[in-house]
């Protein structure tokens, strides 16, 4: 059917265009590109009447255009859905809190333990620039809610879990945790300075209460050994 339609329409093209006729391969490429255009019209040689009747082609140019528009709409909706999923996944990867922040698993890796932090109430604004301190830095990060941890929220509020890596000759760590209203925020709403003993040989997890229901994101602004 395709071969018959190609040769028939190319013959019409030769008769119609004369010396300005396109080579056969370029003519086919042009017809193929036109069939997927969104101009709303097809040239007459796209749907040759005699070939349509001979092979009982059921799809009219209007139906074909409708199919193309439907495909475009579906692709647009699917693209929006993928963007929404990506944004949500990014937000989840940044968050340590939220509605399900207390639902951490009970599993713990070998060498890990939990600890209780002490410190002052959270203060408004971002944390001040890290001050010079004598203790060496210690690696610490806010866990994603899907990460297993035995640390749990104190009371009924939501919380973040901060994982602190064990450091040689360090028995206590000072943390400065910042809280944000959204994953895209560049300036923290509040911060809190905490201290906790290191009890695990590999890492120690500690639950940090969410200061406000609007601050569903957090990061560690600074962490250092406070007691050798």
UniProtKB/TrEMBL annotation:
The chain crosses the membrane at residues 69-91. Keywords: Membrane, Transmembrane, Transmembrane helix. Residues 115-124 have a biased composition (Low complexity). Residues 115-135 are annotated as: Disordered. The keyword Transmembrane helix applies. This is Uncharacterized protein.
């Amino acid at each position: 059917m395709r071969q018959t339609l190609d040769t028939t329409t190319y013959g019409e093209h030769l008769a119609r265009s004369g010396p300005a006729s396109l080579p056969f391969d370029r003519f086919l490429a042009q017809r193929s590109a036109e069939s997927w255009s969104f101009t709303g019209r097809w040239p007459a040689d796209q749907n040759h009447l005699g070939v349509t009747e001979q092979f009982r082609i059921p799809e009219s140019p209007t139906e074909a255009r409708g199919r193309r528009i439907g495909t475009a709409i579906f692709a647009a909706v699917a693209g929006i859905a993928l963007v929404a999923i990506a944004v949500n996944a990014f937000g989840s990867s940044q968050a340590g809190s939220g509605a399900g922040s207390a639902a951490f698993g009970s599993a713990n890796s070998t060498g890990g333990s939990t600890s209780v932090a002490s410190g002052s109430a959270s203060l408004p604004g971002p944390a001040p620039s890290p001050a010079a301190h004598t203790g060496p830095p210690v690696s610490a990060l806010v866990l994603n809610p899907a990460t297993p941890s035995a640390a749990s929220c104190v009371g009924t509020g939501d919380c973040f879990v901060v994982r602190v890596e064990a450091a040689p000759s360090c028995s206590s760590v000072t943390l400065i945790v910042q809280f944000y209203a959204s994953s895209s925020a560049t300036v923290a709403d509040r911060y809190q300075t905490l201290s906790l003993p290191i009890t695990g040989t590999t890492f120690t997890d500690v639950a940090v209460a969410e200061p406000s229901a609007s601050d569903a994101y957090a990061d560690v602004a600074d962490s250092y050994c406070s007691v050798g």
